[in-house]
Amino acid sequence: MLGAFIRAFRTPDLRNKLLFTLFILTVFRLGAVIPAPGINSAAIREQLEAVQAQDSTGVFTLLNLFSGGALFQLAVFALGIMPYITASIIINLLTVVVPRLEALKKEGQSGQGKITQYTRYLTLLLAVLQSSSIVAMARTGQLFQGQIPVSTYMPNQDPLTLVTIVITMSAGTALIMWFGELITERGVGNGMSLLIFTTVVAGFPSAMTTMFQEQEAWVFGIICVAGLFLIAGVVFIEQAQRRIPVQYAKRMVGRRMYGGSSTYIPLKVNQAGIIPVIFASSLLYLPQLAIGLMGQDADNPVANFINSYFISGTHPIYMATFFFLIIGFAFFYVAITFNPAEVADNMKKYGGFIPGIRPGRPTAEYLDYVLTRLTTPGSLYLGLIALLPMVALGASGATQNFPFGGTSILIMVGVGLDTVKQIESHLQQRNYEGFLR
After folding, report:
1. Which CATH number is 1-200 given?
2. What residue stretch is flagged as signal peptide (predicted)?
């Protein structure tokens, strides 16, 4: 593998792509530690560990994960990539129900360009709304659950300062979106995925350090070994796929013979990726956000119910709800992203068929049957991986810094594998061996 890295940097165009990607990621991480105007980030950092211990599974934990810790420091890039992820999910869902968007999706590159433009506009709108809500909660002390006095990190609360913070955070989101597009066009890998990967990995060393300080040496060693086995299992599942063989019949076009080739349709076990976990987490944050806006009222039965079962994140009802939401969203997302009827029609149009299955409706039914059988273990796998940090938190009393499991490990493994494959493709174009042998 070391030789493959050396060959990658010896290839001029690939070296330039890698260096450009590293440069953008470095600038991105710098923006995550620069505080917004009017924010005293030093005061936040002094008491941040105590706050996070109180908010291990609170309202903004996932947002803080996707911002690489920038949210709880109210930095320029405090919103991270989350507004773009939310906008992309909304646009994908609307594509199924809005005929105009569905028509644009079928127009090819020009239509995809318009959909991308709509995604950008929606991202900016969500960034303004999200930054406004974060500033409002920070101004009232709700963001840090009242653990840090507002006057220590936001001494000036005049309207001009608050508007400046909102504009700065929204502009930071627009800049992050531009960074992701630059990496995709001129660098290596998917830009948005790499930015998410960077924010997650940024918190990994501190989590390991904290765990080493809190646990005994032998416990820390066992956790590390278990983490390596877990990573190997995630890699195995992420790489697993069911290959549906497809045969194309020979056909005469003019004087030339086309077809007669065989290929396959790769259906992954985890066809939905990380999206169901984000869906389920976002939905479960709604009652917690409602509590933050309503305040703590002892006479409110709804508030008491949410406080009892949905705030700690380790209650069995919360974990069961989270688990079943992930399973439901996995089936839902696969259903809207992979259309067996459309795939069967395209195969029939170009003379393709699955051996032993008649073209048309029988092919669509067969693909739907196989996809359902694959999605079932894939959704269970996602649910179990997402519950690992909660189980560790409830069983061992560990802090939220438990680094193995949940959304973070899925992102690290998935994006890492995808980036390595893209680098391999560049190397194999020059008859070099790749990283994975």
Report:
1. 1.10.3370.10
2. none
Structure token pair of residue 404: 């193995």
Q: How confident is the model at residue 4 (pLDDT cuts 50, 70, 90)?
A: low
DSSP helix, strand, coil percent of the chain (3-state; round to 5) = 70, 5, 25
Are the C-beta atoms of residues 181 and 395 closer than 8 Å to each other? no
Q: Please say if the pLDDT value at position 313 is more than 70.
A: no
Indicate the helix (H) or strand (E) that contains 374.
helix 361-396
pLDDT bin (cut points 50, 70, 90) of residue 179 is very high
**Inter-residue contact 38 to 156 (CB < 8 Å):** yes
The tokens describing 13, both together, are 């165009």
Q: Which 8-state DSSP code applies to residue 72?
A: G
pLDDT band at 102 (very low <50, low <70, confident <90, very high): confident
Asked if domains 1-200 and 216-397 share a fold, the reply is yes
What's the rounded Cα separation, in Å, for the pair 411 and 198?
10
Domain 216-397 has CATH 1.10.3370.10: yes
- Residue 137, C-beta contacts closer than 8 angstroms, at least 6 positions apart: 143, 292
For 325-352, the pLDDT digits (tens) are 889 888 988 888 888 888 888 888 877 8
What pLDDT sits at residue 59? 44
The residues that bridge with 248 in the sheet, in sequence order, are: 352
Q: Which amino acid is at 174?
A: A
What phi and psi values does residue 40 have, to the nearest 5 degrees? -95, 90
> Tell me, what's the pLDDT at 56?
43
Strands 256-258 and 251-253: antiparallel
Query: For residue 316, with 0-12 CB atoms within 10 Å meaning exposed, 13-18 middle and 19 or more buried, which class applies?
Result: exposed
Q: Is 116 left (phi over 0), alpha (psi -120 to 50) or beta?
A: alpha
What angle do the packed helices 191-202 and 82-97 form, to 10 degrees? 140
Domain ranges of the chain: 1-200, 216-397
Task: State in Å, rounded, how far the first CA of the chain is from the last one.
Answer: 9
Alpha-carbon gap, residue 419 to 18, rounded angstroms: 11
* Dihedral sign from CA coordinates of 298, 303, 309, 311: negative
